[in-house]
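Researcher: Re-running this chain for the archive, since the previous output was lost when a drive failed. Same request as before.
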Amino acid sequence: MDIHKEFTTWALAQGVTLNGIAPHMFPGRGLGILAEKTLEAGEEILHAPTPALRTAQTVPRSISKLLGPTTSVNGLLATELALNTPETRAPWRAVLPTRASFEECMPVLWHASLQALLPPSAAQLLENQKSKISADWSAVSIAFPTLSYELYLYNWLLVSTRTFFYTSSRSAKSRTKTKKPLCRDDCLALVPLADNFNHADVGCEVMFSPAGYRICTDRRVARGEEIYISYGNHSNDFLLAEYGFLLEENRWDEIRLDEMILPLFSEAQTQVLNDAGFLGKFVLDRDTVCYRTQVALRLLCMPVGRWQRSVANGSEDEDKYRLAVDKILLKALKLAVGSVDEKIKQVAVLDRGLASQRGTLSRRWTQIRQLLTSCISRIES
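Model: Regenerated structure tokens:
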């Protein structure tokens, strides 16, 4: 039997119900969910009952009791996946991504020379990810010294890329007792078959209740179409670092401008921005430069006292200084395009890593260049 059909049979035996959908291998894109019939908007297409989920509460005590409270739920589930491999779950394991597929797409597994050329936002996310993995491994490696880091990391990535948001009354009570706030990173569940849905910036509605998960269509879907869910309103830097892919069209894409904007300010001006709460977190999305950036740049065009009053009382000078701000911004954006072109050249001459990894990195920088040049065109027009 085909492994995906065997997995579907297994999932149905766990209580998962499907309506007109099935896992399907899409040429050039990998595994996803296919509509086997025409579906109307609002139809429930998948239900996964709570007993079918894998959560912190389902981890065997033989594993959880040896890991302290500092281990994240991601780390806890990864440890269970690595160590607890009963034959009854073999159909699920058979359809999970391989380590080789992760090596191709996940920056945390790329060569350091490729990681060094990640865009700033993706690089910061990668460092945060490494810190989480390291903190979990510190506890897991002591509790289970025979578990290899390579196997653990593979399972950590399985969990981080395939889980859904999940809370339970037990987890909430546990956090109350320890006085540790409930962290979104620790609200995780593995949901069989639901984890085969690919991401789009708009997708089916995913609903969670004490009874389990329901996925319903957000629109009419024709027979033969791929069906998507949305992992959230994420930029391509986030999708690359956390999930290992890029969208060609992403309505939520954005880039950080701090590296090109902050050097424009003197030390004294930087302090003024910090005191007013306008230092950094400058962003350019598909439509515009964020309000924070525009406000901060006005500091370069007007006396400090007047800028502070305009921030405190609401700006009355926005139109007056718009041309001056646009001029400064335009210069910074054009310099940034030059920097991006240099990054693309550096990726092109690299001989480390896989060609597909270098291709992904080049595509991301090309997307960033397009965001910058589109903004330049809007300003100049």
